[in-house]
Amino acid sequence: MKQLITLRVNGESYEVAVEPQTILLDVLREKLGLNGTKKACDFGNCGSCTVLMDGKPVLSCLILAMDAQGKDILTIEGMAKDGQLHPLQRAFIDHGAIQCGFCTPGMLLSAKALLDENPQPIAEEVRQAISGNLCRCTGYHKIVEAILDVAQSSQRKG
Amino acid sequence: MQQYSVVGKRIPRVDGGVKATGEAQFTVDVVLPKMLYGKILRSPYPHARILSIDTSKAEALPGVKAVTSGKDTGVVRFSFIDTPRYPADQCPLAVDKVRFIGEDVAAVAAISEDIAEEALSLIKVEYEELPAVFDPEEAMKDGAPRIHDKIIPTTTTAWQDFGVIREARPYDAVNNISNRTLITVGDIEQGFKESDYVREDRFEIPATSHLALEPHAALASFNPSGKLDMWLSHMGYEPKRFWLAKTLGIPISKVRIHKTYVGGAFGGKISLFPYEFLAAFLSRRTGRPVKITLSRSEVLSTCYTSRRFIINVKTGVKKDGIITTQQVKIIDDVGAYRSSSPTALYLAHVFRPAIYNIPNVKHEGVGVYTNKLTTGPKRGHALPQISFAVESQLDMIAEELRIGPLELRLKNLRKKGDVLPNGDTLDSYGLPEALKQAAQSSSWKQKWDRQPKKGMGIGTASMFSGAHNYPFGSAAVIKLNPDGRFTLFTGQTEFGGGVDTAMSQIAAEELGLTTDDIIVVSGDSELCPYDIGNWLSGGIYVSGQAVKRAAADAKEQLLAYAAEALDIKADNLAINQGRVYVKADPGKAVSFADLYRYGIQIKDGDPIIGKGYTKVVQDVGFWGGTFKGLGALSRGAGRFTDAYSFAAAIAEVEVDKETGKVKVIEITIADDCGTDINPLNVEGQLESQAAMAVGDALFEEIVTEQGRVINPTLADYKIPGVLDTPKLTTISVQDYETKGPFGAKEIGETARGAAIVAIANAICNAIGARIYSLPMTPEKILEALKHSDYIKNWPTED
């Protein structure tokens, strides 16, 4: 039985009809056309579908759309502001932290959640923060470097 | 070394922006109006005859638009390898019988994935189970269940299409033998006689998954006018449209593969897959677009894996460690269909002669059908397998002779300029330097010892830069825009390696521009010229050369127009920053944008359009009935490739004797890719391969029981996460390859094999015992430790 719910995604409200078992990932991709959030494993093992819910990284394939009501959801499409890339996006590009790009949205959101919570992480904290996000292309080093670089430049500025 | 202004620079990838913002469109993201969803019914049996298929109930389900089975699709064969000797052996849907669990039996197109899924459950298939065989050595025996009846070719091969007068012959897989390879160099009998020390060992390498994060997917839109538009997750459009045209019976020019970004490939998305054919077939049937996206468990349990090799190596050496002879026997457990086995068994030999100079070699391979998942290429295609076997044994020989592993390797290396037995020449050969630098950087001399707990291991590998596979070459086109920028058309496919960026750098360098001035149109079969594709590592070496030549052609045209316009000889002109200027008087210049207009106004509308092309391995070719030094897979005859690249890897590990767990401390890779077109991407490729090697060495394996994959999820099939990845040190030694574009050759595949070997040898060095199979799991390590003297001297925990 479909039910009408309201989701707040990237600062905008959307009314969507969903089944009780519909997962947030499918709503984002199929109903809202937010294809930046990726589905890669179907079972919450790879981190590709990571979005932020009230600032915390969650796997949108394990969240029921209904349970996402009343929460602030941020997807990769909401990361750049006013036509400006987020510093993490810039750093990922500049450091070569992106290859095929399929894990990138989830990886960036996990990184953002970390830096929002802990602006000056050490390398081990960065590694822990992205330990649920699988990447088959990069070997992770340039991703860790990129995140640490953003943390360090914000320290320099701050 | 020459100084370049764009090539060799750490330029951020041109597709970074769209990938960082989530805008990059992958096949799984493409949606078309009225699109249907396809699902595939798969065999529950490893070997069974199909008695009947009843699709009536599924067809009656509301929302179902088409149901199809092998009765409709018929006997139409395709394969990775399709030669007159080894014709294609697979059908998109099983016709008479099924040969592995997961084989495609029927397919549905419906208005939603849920309905399609429900429809599958309504299809009734009656099977008669047949005896199955899973072990290749059993399968070869007389009386083993016969997996294939005589295979009758249904289409002409690419070779015939190119005029080779050699018809595909029916293939009778006696004793389940799919294919054989026999390559000989020198005389091994004599060689073993002359050896002071001979040893023989058997190694086993399991199937692993490519595990590209984007699942396999296809979207097809068949227009009744006869045009097929497809969006695929792939590695090059030529084999895809070749096989789609053949299997669907439509002209190749009516098949368009559109550009999408590809979410990783690693060799796992090359040849045609049944789901791709089925999307097209169902779209033609329904008149609506059909998309099929495989689930992760479908990818892991039905798509081809890496090749399962059993390798017997017998090597003879002199007392001083000089290798005189090597005999390699490989059993390739190909699974239900032959796929790339003839290529793999050939590659398992031809990747080796460029590394060590071994005068007597016999290389025998046999591909054997079994009722298991089909195997295929994966990053290095047979390179990791053969490297593991040969380089593991080299360490054992070094141990017996009490020669250091590094010294043994250095003694047997080839020399730059060497001509290999088949005629390939090592015009570039950075391996000695790579070994030297890897050893220095990792403090090999200080750290390597024969002590327990911590271990160091070394591995080497070499790889082609493109080979003579369909479509045998590449071309590129570049056109001048009104603003002086160029649009480059290349058939290369961007699946993460950074080829779009590299191609824009090559074109920009040649034209004195920046990458911002080069708009890259790639991966679209309708817009781009023919292209070798992005495997066997021909991307940069082959297609990059075509791009460089296209840019050079455009440059020549610019100079000719400028010479006229400025009334000066072209020799006196040079190009820089979008202008052609007089060398002696740089203020006197004409911009590219001016020359665009000059072409139109003064030259009767003749635009600046550059064309470039190159053929892979020019010594090999055919036309009509004549052959020009034709290569032969099964005999290893003729030239293989134009340039080899090399990697030396050193790994440092620590083993926990209680748990058998391995901590990889550091992997150092020194690689010779000729020229770093983009150091950022070169490092990315090397780090990628090192990380992947950790999974290969320690835990990755597709495990089957009675033909059933028992670990078909990412919870059960683990790949390296960031916490599994050690410190990675990459070194590029760059031995300029004169035949490559700006001196460049392969980068994406060599290092994986070298790194796997390095980790494996490091583990064996740490435990004082040998493990003969991958992955080196804690169970195997604990078992090996039982037989090791090292256990007595194991250092106590700190």
Strand line-up in the sheet with most strands of chain A: 2-1-5-3-4
User: How does the helix and strand content of chain A classify structurally?
Assistant: alpha+beta
CATH architectural category of the largest domain in chain A: Roll
CATH topology of the largest domain in chain A: Ubiquitin-like (UB roll)
Please report the distance between the alpha carbons of the first and last residues of chain B. 49 Å
How would you describe this protein?
The complex is a heterodimer of chains A (158) and B (798). Chain A has two domains: 3-78, Ubiquitin-like (UB roll), CATH 3.10.20.30; 87-157, [2Fe-2S]-binding domain (DNA polymerase, domain 1), CATH 1.10.150.120. The N and C termini of chain A lie far apart (52 Å). Chain A is built from five helices and five strands; from the N terminus they run E-E-H-E-E-E-H-H-H-H. Chain A is of the alpha+beta class. Helix content of chain A is 34%, strand content 16%. The mean pLDDT of chain A is 96. The longest helix of chain A is centred in the C-terminal third of the chain and has 17 residues, at 141-157. In chain A, strand 1 (3-9) and strand 2 form a beta hairpin. A five-stranded mixed β-sheet of chain A has the order 2-1-5-3-4, sandwiched between helices. With 798 residues, chain B is an alpha+beta fold. Among the domains of chain B are: 27-131 and 210-302, Aldehyde Oxidoreductase, domain 3 (Alpha-Beta Complex), CATH 3.90.1170.50; 400-463 and 643-786, Aldehyde Oxidoreductase, domain 4, CATH 3.30.365.10; 473-615, Aldehyde Oxidoreductase, domain 4. Chain B contains 21 helices and 30 strands. In chain B, strands 3-5-1-12-9-10-11 form a seven-stranded mixed β-sheet, with helices on both faces. In chain B, strands 7-15-14-13-8 form a five-stranded mixed β-sheet. In chain B, helix 12 packs parallel to helix 20 (750-767), helix 17 crosses helix 18 (592-601) and helix 19 packs across helix 20 (750-767). Chain B is globular. The relative contact order of chain B is 0.13. Chains A and B meet through helix 2, helix 3 and helix 5 of A and helix 1 and helix 19 of B.
